[in-house]
Write a structure and sequence with these properties.
Strand order of the largest sheet: 3-2-1-4-5-7-6
Number of domains: 1
Largest sheet: 7 strands, mixed
Structural class: alpha/beta
Shape: globular
CATH superfamily: Vaccinia Virus protein VP39
Strand content: 15-25%
Radius of gyration: 15 Å
CATH topology: Rossmann fold
CATH architecture: 3-Layer(aba) Sandwich
Number of strands: 7
CATH class: Alpha Beta
């Protein structure tokens, strides 16, 4: 689905529901969409879909490249929300997995040649570093990206162990400012960060 069409549908959907889904998506949604399109990524995995804001942008981009989106979240309510959002937006090329485990992630990545692993789930160092280690071993090395979200602050579920910032530090990922948000990335093979997002 084209970005402009996605935003139009998003706007209609959020106005009907009177929520802030579209506004919050604008923080990195465009960046995620461009990342998938400009690298021609076919298989995308998001760990921590929450309400489906970023998932919709990734799924719409996968639709354009002929790819598929896999989402994982531990909350049944969030999984249901993602299903509703995708249905309302007319997106079908996705698989949502509720209450996954690390072996789930490993199987999906090994069987589906994942090009983008977007780590945005439980924010502790223990969780994110475990997810990173699996992604590092299994990401497509010819055209792959590992992407971390929420990299510049200690989340409430990670105060004990320094959280995602510590995982980013140990992985050697590069931090990138995206609008009023920050991500960190590791590139493999021919993968690039779209030029318009490099300040």
């Amino acid at each position: 689905m084209r970005l402009e069409e996605l935003k139009r549908r998003f706007s209609e959907f959020t106005q009907e529901r009177r929520d802030e889904l579209a506004l919050r998506s604008a923080r990195i949604g465009d960046f995620l969409y461009d990342l998938v399109i400009q690298n021609g990524l076919l298989n995308v995995l998001e760990i921590g879909t929450c309400r489906g804001r970023n998932s919709a942008f990734l799924t719409a981009a996968c639709e354009e490249t002929g790819g598929h989106f896999w989402g994982m979240d531990i909350g049944p309510g969030d999984c249901d929300s993602v299903e509703r959002v995708m249905k309302q937006l007319g997106l079908t090329n996705f698989t949502q997995i509720c209450n996954p485990s690390l072996p789930h992630m490993s199987v999906i990545m090994s069987e589906n040649n994942i090009n983008l692993a977007f780590i945005d789930g439980e924010h502790s160092f223990k969780s994110t570093y475990s997810e990173y280690c699996i992604a590092k071993d299994l990401i497509n090395k010819e055209n792959g990206i590992i992407l971390f979200h929420d990299v510049d602050y200690i989340h409430c579920d990670s105060k004990e162990d320094k959280g995602i910032p510590e995982t980013v530090r140990r992985s050697g990922a590069t931090i990138l400012q995206v609008n009023d948000d920050k991500v960190a990335y590791l590139l493999y093979g021919t993968a690039i960060i779209p030029e318009q997002w490099i300040k």
